[in-house]
Specification:
Chain A: One of its GO terms (biological process) is mRNA splicing, via spliceosome. The structure holds 3 protein chains of 3 kinds. By secondary structure, chain A is mainly beta. In chain A, 6% of the residues lie in helices and 54% in strands. The chains are: A mainly beta, B alpha+beta, C alpha+beta. Chains in contact: A-B, A-C.
């Protein structure tokens, strides 16, 4: 059940997700879901069939109301620079 | 519990439930699987909390080391969070005192 | 070095470089170095309306650290080769 036996260092977790769908949380309220094809120690990555979700807080000038605007887009193949990465999560394993 | 170096301390909490708080204020609660020299960490059974509210959960999670983890590990939040989840009263009292010492 | 080698295989291909300041540049990848600094030729600004003054840009150098994403031509990326190279790199970096 536990994956800790195989995982000695955090990057092993990412290695175990190669060729799998992963969720990546990025700075500036962006999230990416895609198939992990490559990564390095900086967390630079190449992802395939990516869906990016951007959450922006929009302030209405008149009412000063804050709303969250969510934009999504799809990208076939994407290189992403590691310095923007906050969290990487492999697909949920069935327990 | 009291170890000499921060590194020893961190090794001693591997496998235990922790809260990792980022600079942004977002918290990740989970079981610390491992960490490396960059302070990258791996968590199991991770839950994401924003403003104390659980917003999502991930089975496993990798958190990149440069997101203000440092403060989280040695800050008061971190100690408090360990005692939340150990479930051992003796230990939590000990840690709580330790926490107070840190705070004041 | 993984991504340096990878980008060398994409020289002369068309890419879209998205910078951290939201500017997107479409162009032909001329060259890349170990820091993933990039030279682009035949540059077009993706959102010309938003950045009209960038319209006169024909070729440029981009400092690697300012990059957020690079959209790649999926047909020119061999994902199997990438994944193998990533596993090798992972092994090498493991102490």
């Amino acid at each position: 059940m536990s994956v800790s036996s195989v995982i000695e260092q955090p990057l092993d977790l990412i290695r175990a997700s190669l060729d799998e769908r992963v969720l990546i949380k990025m700075k500036a309220d962006r999230e990416l879901r895609g198939t992990l094809h490559a990564y390095d120690q900086h967390l630079n990555m190449v992802l395939g069939n990516v869906e990016e979700t951007i959450n922006e807080i929009v302030v209405n000038d008149n009412t000063n109301e804050q709303t969250v605007k969510t934009t999504k887009r799809k990208i076939g193949m994407l290189f992403l620079r590691g310095d923007g990465v906050i969290l990487v999560s492999p697909p949920l394993r069935t327990k | 519990m009291s170890k000499r170096t921060p590194g020893d301390f961190l090794k001693s909490v591997v496998g235990r439930p922790v809260v990792v708080k980022l600079n942004s204020g977002v918290e990740y609660r989970g079981i610390l699987t491992c960490l490396d020299g960059f302070m990258n960490i791996a968590l199991e059974q991770t839950e994401e909390y924003i403003n104390g509210i659980r917003v999502s959960s991930f089975g496993d999670a990798f958190v990149r080391g440069n997101n203000g983890l440092f403060a989280a590990f040695f800050g008061v939040n971190y100690f408090i969070s360990i005692l939340h989840s150990t479930g051992k009263v003796k230990k939590s009292i000990m840690l709580r005192q330790h926490t107070k010492e840190c705070q004041y | 070095m993984l991504f340096f080698s990878f980008f060398k295989t994409l020289v002369d291909k068309e890419v879209i470089v998205e910078l951290k300041n939201e500017v997107s540049l479409k162009g032909t990848l001329h060259s890349v170095d170990q820091y993933l600094n990039i030279k682009l030729n035949n540059v077009e600004i993706v959102d010309e309306q938003k950045y009209p003054y960038l319209g006169c840009l024909k070729n440029c150098f981009i400092r690697g650290s300012t990059v957020r994403y690079i959209q790649l031509p999926a047909a020119d990326v061999d994902t199997d080769v990438l994944q193998d190279a990533t596993r090798k790199e992972h092994q090498v970096n493991k102490k």
